[in-house]
Amino acid sequence: QDTLIVWSEAENYDLALSFQEKAGCDEIWEKICQVQGKDPSVEVTQDLIESEEEHIEEMPETSPLIDLPTCELNKLEEIADLVTSVLSSPIRREKLALALENEGYIKKLLQLFQVCENLENTEGLHHLYEIIRGILFLNKATLFEVMFSDECIMDVVGCLEYDPSLAQPKRHREFLTKTAKFKEVIPITDSELRQKIHQTYRVQYIQDIILPTPSVFEENFLSTLTSFIFFNKVEIVSMLQEDEKFLSEVFAQLTDEATDDDKRCELGMDDLQVRSAATDIFSYLVEFSPSMVREFVMQEAQQSDDDILLINVVIEQMICDTDPELGGAVQLMGLLRTLIDPENMLATANKTEKSEFLNFFYNHCMHVLTAPLLANTSEDKCEKDAVVGSTKSNTICPDNYQTAQLLALILELLTFCVEHHTYHIKNYIMNKDLLRRVLVLMNSKHTFLALCALRFMRRIIGLKDEFYNRYITKGNLFEPVINALLDNGTRYNLLNSAVIELFEFIRVEDIKSLIAHIVENFYNALESIEYVQTFKGLKTKYEQEKDRQNQKLNSVPSILRSNRFRRDARALEEDEEMWFNEDEEEEGEAVVPPVEKSKQEDDFPDSYEKFMETKKAKESEDKENLPKRTSAGGFKFTFSHSASAANGANGANSKSVAAQTSPASSNGSSSKNATLTTAVTATKGSLVGLVDYPDDEDDDEEEETSPRKRPRLGS
């Protein structure tokens, strides 16, 4: 049993080995099976159970059964010991069940219960509790039929009130007879149906409320009781379906405007119990066929406003849950997760359910789901508290515990979307600047909510998607995370470990654009953290990358002396492949960055042939247009930040490499070709070679490049 190995010795002596990890349990299990000569892939190797059960089936009626003590007050302790002792042995349980059934023993015991209660015989009542509980654990349907009959069930409940571990007996019978009321929306005339409903409610109460949670050895003892309840419910539903008048009358009253509110409330509206029942019904539908529910809501969208769509009603019920622990909201969130899970979406030759439904969800429902998050992280909802002696200000979100619980649920669902919805959630995050709003919650007084916000960012970074990476660096979105780490101080807690793990992931995966951004912008604040080597490791990675770039830059003069700075053919092939890969549409919808495409990108030739023609034209470029070596041995580049300096280039090209303007760019084509061919970029007018690290002041359309991160064509 995962981390347990359980066995029986003698008749009532059970033993178990418990392991901390499943691997250790499996290892010992295999050794035991090897000694026994058994197959370790099976969960039960004890032949005794199976052979005993077969023996029971073949056992003649004359086979000796267990001798039951006479049903008297002074024998109750002996009876209780007998019932308790047989539970560990399947064959003895079966013999006892047959004996109880044959002798009508249960009804005699319940007569003794009435005597003990009248005499206030507490000791006898405690023994009867053990006896009745043990008989339930015999797990026999034939005994349940007797115990749960109208004649016996209330006395069975009475016996179970006298738990020896309780100082005072419970009042279960009082609840079932006086507090619990049977309401009939439509009068039920079938007496058999009424009796079945009463019985099912009471048996469910015994299982859910009265009986204690079974131990590891008892967990299978009540499987027949669960089946008894299930088949009772099946029978009730079947009888209602067969009733020609019942359902038609229910729906007639629901649609009749003359039905008063009190009557209608018994059918629905804001009643908490009815809402809970409706949630249960909806959950059964989703579990049975999520595709059917998705098909319904998409058809509904063609006829209804967004406000009354089924999924939006579910989301609003989740948001408006009045339970402080949000029990209903947690259940509804699980249903939403099932509905938006691509793993259970169907794909056919003619249509793709995933694409259709996710388009619907993000167009009609996502704004409802994120509304509480956006409302609680907006500027007018947050306070700016100046830190004494500091130039920075902390954004503090005023969240109470229930609001924090709700935001954590929403973030959990959004994190699921990041993992499973690719471009749909990517577009939404970037267009709404959602990550920035989420990271406001890093300042929440509730640590679990701050961790949810961090987990959301960690999932995004875990994708290692350069669209996301550029969005994070351009928006300086590491700042709230690093502030949270520094504000946490020297406390060694989960928040501290989670933040460090985020940066350790970036270091181990060698995400160069993020490493450069972190080191260049935050290393001074982080270098004092020495209890882990993560941040020193980031600095080392950064310096190693710069060294590699400098070595490439130093190799440029010799290449230039050979008449041309050439990139090898494989690098060019990678560039061309990246250009096509990054521009292609994914499943019919283009991935759009959060910033608008620049005029430069629109003007760039979109055919491979034009690109190759431009490249050949550049190869015949005059040496005079190449950068000039300075006395210090480096290169001097002249940059113009005005549109007119591009010698006739398109006016949208606000930054161009003036000293390297090619004939192609002078004739009006994009100067990006010159930038691509010479592989030189400019940041802050500084001297750089093949690569520079990201600069927040650059225009969004100009990207820096590195040997490992090849430039997108036109960047």
Automatic annotation (TrEMBL):
GO terms for biological process: DNA damage response. Residues 577-589, 693-704 have a biased composition (Acidic residues). Transmembrane segments: none annotated. Residues 1-36 form the PP4R3 EVH1-like domain. Residues 267-544 form the Serine/threonine-protein phosphatase 4 regulatory subunit 3-like central domain. InterPro entries: ARM-type_fold (IPR016024), EVH1_PP4R3 (IPR055236), P4R3-like_central_dom (IPR006887), PH-like_dom_sf (IPR011993), PP4R3-like (IPR051137). Residues 672-684 have a biased composition (Polar residues). GO terms for molecular function: protein phosphatase activator activity. Residues 640-671 have a biased composition (Low complexity). One of its GO terms (cellular component) is protein phosphatase 4 complex. Coiled coil: none annotated. Residues 596-627 have a biased composition (Basic and acidic residues). Gene3D superfamilies: Pleckstrin-homology domain (PH domain)/Phosphotyrosine-binding domain (PTB). It holds the Pfam family PP4R3. Residues 577-715 are annotated as: Disordered. Belongs to the SMEK family. This is Serine/threonine-protein phosphatase 4 regulatory subunit 3B.
